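Hi F.,

I've been meaning to write this up properly since the lab meeting, where we talked about keeping a consistent format for the predictions we share between groups. The idea is simple: the sequence comes first, exactly as it goes in, then the structure tokens exactly as they come out, then a line or two of notes. No screenshots and no reformatting. I'm using this chain as the first example so we have something concrete to point to.
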Amino acid sequence: MPHLPTLLMQVGVVILAARLVGLLFRRIGQPQVVGEIAAGIILGPSLLGWLSPSLEASLFPIESLGFLNALSQIGLVAFMFLVGLELNPQLLRGRSHTAVVTSHASITLPFFLGSLLALYLYPRLSDNSVTFQNFALFVGTAMSITAFPVLARILSERKLMNHPVGVIAIACAAVDDVTAWCILAAVVAMVRAGGATTPLWLTLAGSLAYLLFMVFVVRRLLRGLVSRHLDRGRITHDNLGLILLLVLGSAWVTEQLGIHALFGAFLVGTIMPKDPDFVRSLTERIEGLVVVLLLPLFFAFTGLRTSIGLLASTEMWMYCGLLIAAAIAGKLGGSMLAAGLTGMTWREAGAVGILMNTRGLIQLVVLNIGLDIGVISPAMFTMMVIMALVTTFMTTPLLELVYPTRMMIQEADAARRSDGAGSDFATSATVR
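Output, unedited:
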């Protein structure tokens, strides 16, 4: 069968499944992205391939997956730009001691537990093609991830941006995202350096030079986009084209430097002007196509790489349970303990810990990078995908149990009336 008809059929099936399952998950109080991730798993060997191998093979023949992956990677590049665009440095200014301590604890404790667990899992789920150092660093980094966009969406839907819990959680998640991606960039550079002709020191030096160039040169040049936006009242096609070229160019540079294309896209988003109207307009121009069309393709491709059948033994499920337990203990437990010890009530601290335990799509992006560079096996990949789904799925019901939304909204409204001021967080949040 020609590749184009196959690709068109795949895209149609993926979009239909993502919308239907996403709608179902919204009906049960979950973010739609969780349902879309589940739809990708359903279309893969874990369910469709198990129920009807011939149907899965006809829908997703192996020779066509390269095209599906290419489209999904374009979607990821655009999505990581949106994630960077949404990160506003103002979130990190003027925050209390609680935010600083909690953000550090929510990174260091899960990183430590993940690295410690790697001592046990490495001889059982890896081999000599991967060094223990790279394996442990990756597992620790993956444990440290918080899905900033999903968290922002949960807080926005529940009108909790003004609540102390929302303020602390969103600030900590912003720090976590930047820190975890910096660590991951170093891990990817070290892994790729093992099979590359470019020395590691040159990769790191080139990456640092590029980072400084983007922050201190390109960032200043981009300020003119805001004034043009104010003059025209919208983002023109020429400006949008310029921004997209910059995103693609930056992704190409970081890929050539030996880290990953997604880091370049994320970097451009972080250095873009953070004027709320500009950010909102730019997000609206890009978000729809990415969210409805391209990201579901990534979920489907991830689902095709996830095979729950690899966890066929009790022992493998025990390893998976250990990963989930360590992830929850490190992220939820570490965040809650730090927040509680710095003055928050234990109910508020528990809510912060639950929110920080959200992983979602960002976790899947990280795991796919790990599988692509060979630092984790397909079985380990499947376990960590399950971990990402479990920790994200538990966020909404557990938060409602520990700190009911009605109570949080009432407290936030009371605080806003007493302050006589609006939210500092009037920035757009992507649907992720």
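Notes:
The radius of gyration is 21 Å.
The chain has a mean pLDDT of 86.

If this format works for you, I'll send the rest the same way.

G.
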